[in-house]
Amino acid sequence: MTLTPQFGIFLDPSVGDPREPFRLAKIADDNGLDLLTIQDHPYQGRFYETWTLLTALAMRTERIHVSPNVANLPLRLPAVLAKQAATLDILTGGRVELGLGAGGFWDAIAAYGGPKREPAEAYAAFEDALHILRGMWDNTSKSFTYVGEIYSVKGAHSGPTPAHRIPIWVGANGPKMMRLTGRMADGILVSLAYVPPAKTLTLNALIDEGASQAGRSPDAIRRGYNVGGVIRSGAGSVGSLTPNNAIDGTAGFWADTLTNLYNDYRQDTFIFWGGGDVGSQIEMFANEVVPAVKERVSAGVA
Asked: What is the CATH number of domain 6-102+167-299?
């Protein structure tokens, strides 16, 4: 059974009017969206620092959950990341989720003092990080030790205890990472712009395989999709998928598209990245698209 659908936004961290991220976060929070996510590229001079921005927005919102989309592991030590996430989770009353990526822009990462990893090393580091994150969160009443291939902690004084079990989302699409997601993580985050719907069927099968190997229910693992595009005014279902896989159409077209992705491709969490007047786009997404998708899903509309 596919999980109940969730909806969120992909907030642009570009440096500009410092009031704008707070305005957009408030719109998302006030209009009942589930997740506020921010991409994490610390080496990008035109971006705010993601964890700082995420923390500031979390403290100015009331109900929406927050997450990096996704945290850059090579520039974020996993034991410290565990403490950051746990602290913010407590301060927000349990509203933190953790998207995590193995890295990719290796020259830029190296320019910031990070490692330049080959694929096998990046995978090993990521698996180590999953063990450390969950281990630090689950063992706050005692010291914690984990010896990995890339990352190790030895007698670490873990803590504080998160306010809730922090979900870990994996930002990746390779076969080994998909199986690892099934074995150890809580969700996957991919982008429609890079992973077309047909490919999600392959990813889902790999996640299910990993989950089964670990004795976990495949249905417990969320399938997240970053979906970009423009919601246009107008009645009916009118629109198209652009050549770069952006969704361009009326709210009805968006609702039909997301419902299809939910029913036929098992995508259950949709993170919206709108163009144009972003505030108005978020409102249209929350008030016109989201209710229509929920209604269609509830009614079993194909």
From this structure: 3.20.20.30
